[in-house]
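Lab notebook, bench 4. Continuing the backlog of folding jobs that were queued last week. Each job is logged with the same field layout so the records can be merged later without manual cleanup. Today's entry covers Cytochrome c, a 244-residue chain. Filled in by technician R.K.

JOB TYPE: sequence-to-structure
TARGET: Cytochrome c
LENGTH: 244
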Amino acid sequence: MKRFYLLLLLLASGLVPAAWATPPARDAILVFSKTAGFRHSSIPAGKKALMELGQANRFRVDTTEDASVFTYDQLRKYKTIIFLSTTGNILNDEQQAAFEQYIQKGGGFVGIHAAADTEYDWPWYNKLVGAYFLSHPKQQNADIDVWNHSTPATSFLPNRWRRYDEWYNYKSIQPGIKVLATLDEGSYQGGKNGRIHPILWYHEFDGGRAFYTGGGHTDESFQEPLFMKNLLEGIKWTMGRTKW
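JOB STATUS: finished
OUTPUT FIELD FOLLOWS
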């Protein structure tokens, strides 16, 4: 009873102890994984890993495959929208317009792997994601050349980063993207983009921020410390937590 009256007194005086106060609302991100084409079996592993990242870094992670959440009033609740291996045409015209408005008002976007295999008839999305999927060879090891170590997403990566994944070839590569790393096509079979084969990039676009990684086809990708650290720092930048 004494504690109750003490709490009332402190509330009235505005001196509520931090341990008793309501904690501040955490930032939130939305992971969207709707597919209208090939469905990656790694999507559940990706969701789980992203939720763990959120718990460790004080942001809430909501997940959905329901495109009806793509209204501006719903999207504006989130600092960043992640397209986790989405495929095909997944948004209607009204939902596309809402997403465009969200980005134009400063929202963030992260594309993982097949986010580039999405919405081929939407030129604005091509510019946002940075490139479209063209083809891929079999899964194999490849060397990634990290060209820019000045960002928090790459400062810890080796100059040559060897890892196993499904390596996309790209088309409609946008000139405005800032490439962080490229694939060495001499280190694996099936590359078709030549000497400059982007695999990791970011840019500011149409009022918002976008980060893309071509990795993430396999479940194991989401257990790799370097891959997940790179992804985390990309998410934080799109959320506006860091400046590059």
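OBSERVATION: The radius of gyration is 20 Å.
SIGNED: R.K.
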